[in-house]
Amino acid sequence: MKIGNVEFTAPFVMLAPLAGYGDIPFRRICREYGASLTVTEMISAKGLCYGNEKTEQMLRLAPNESPSCVQLFGSDPEFFRKALQRGSLDRFDIIDINMGCPVPKVTKCGEGSALLKDPARAAEIVRACVESSRGRPITVKHRIGYEEGKIVAPEFAARMEEAGASAVTVHGRTTAQGYRGSADWNAIARVVRAVRIPVIGNGDIADRAQAEQAIRTYGCAGVAVGRGALGHPDCFAATGEKTPFAMLLRHIEYALEYFPESVAVKTMRKHVGKYLTGVPGTKELRARVYTVEKAAALKEMLCAAANGRSGI
Ligand SMILES: Cc1cc2nc3c(=O)[nH]c(=O)nc-3n(C[C@H](O)[C@H](O)[C@H](O)COP(=O)(O)O)c2cc1C
After folding, report:
1. Do 139 and 194 share a domain, yes or no?
2. Positive or negative, the Cα torsion across 126, 130, 133, 135?
3. Distance between CA 32 and CA 222 in Å, rounded?
4. Closest by alpha carbon to 241, among 87, 45, 29?
């Protein structure tokens, strides 16, 4: 499996970009369990041009994130061009463009999945990126369509290919659907038939076995796993870790490596909730983690809960 000049071993199962969750410690742990690729949280092309501190922080990479991928969003091709000309993106091997975000705050500015309704502009963005990426592959992540029941992804992906995209990731839902209903993998298969570049299928995949099955059934080059990886970074491994507790402790250590303690603890609260979702008897614990401020207290609380309990 190749995205432009970047080669991957099969099966290609990547972590989908996840704003609010796909931070550096989480990506690092997903790579340890075998994620083929991890992507930064979506970063504003315009914000990059103004070089703010928070944006720069989001560009940090874990030591095992090679090859690396950054996801940009925006609507003005010139901001993408300028963002790519800045040195801060030089460390990335692949540049992905977000054309799938359904959040109104984003789409009302013509960004994210609004670009599905403006393929000419979307193609212009891809061309601007290709021209300024110095040979690095440009990829596009998009949905199957904007409106309910109206699938535009095959033509849209072909247009992105023509503009120079090296791969597309297709989430099998429309913008109107948000995250409701189930992903339409037959629509993803139609995209596979419409283009020659690799198509990465996305939607409702929980683990590596399901990813391999989707690759076989729908002919896509790989799969991106989003929500299935939350609380389950081991979903990328051939055999799972089984205990969320061991993963959680490692995750906390990584969070402390990259963030000040208060930020690390705050970040971990939402991850703890994901790790313990569905683990019987942890409802109270999941609420209690919101009361701790210190990492030591968080670890103690988790160790105490794990002691004498199987399955944590
Ligand atoms: C909390 C959350 C944050 C997301 N952030 C992004 C993002 O920054 N960029 C993007 O392209 N997609 C984003 N997505 C969409 C996912 O990458 C993915 O396409 C979607 O969740 C469907 O895949 P899944 O069924 O495996 O979760 C996000 C989804 C969720 C649930």
Report:
1. yes
2. positive
3. 18
4. 29
What's residue 309's pLDDT?
60
Q: How far is CA 71 from the centre of its chain?
A: 8
Name residues of the chain where pLDDT drops below 50. Answer: 310-311
Token pair for 123: 């193609």
Please indicate, yes or no, whether residues 222 and 248 belong to a single structural domain of this protein: no
For residue 214, being part of any structural domain is answered with: yes
Same domain, 203 and 299: no
**Among candidate residues 236, 254, 272, the one where a domain is terminated:** 236
Q: How many domains would you assign to the chain?
A: 2
Q: Residue 216 belongs to what domain range?
A: 2-236
- Check if 266 has its Cβ closer than 6 Å to any atom of ligand 1: no
User: According to the model, what pLDDT value does residue 197 have?
Assistant: 98
Q: Is the CB of residue 176 below 6 angstroms from any atom belonging to ligand 1?
A: no
16 C-alpha to ligand 1 centroid (Å)? 6
The answer to whether position 207 is within a domain reads: yes
Ligand 1 centroid distance, CA of 300 (Å): 32
pLDDT of residue 311: 46
Domain boundary among 186, 217, 236: 236
Same domain? For 187 and 263 the reply is no
| pLDDT the model gives residue 260 | 96
Q: In this predicted structure, what is the pLDDT of residue 308? A: 58
What is the CA(17)–ligand 1 centre distance, in A? 6
C-alpha angle 48-106-147 in degrees, rounded to nearest 5: 140
What is the reported pLDDT for 281? 83
Measured by CA distance, the residue closest to atom 21 of ligand 1 is: 226
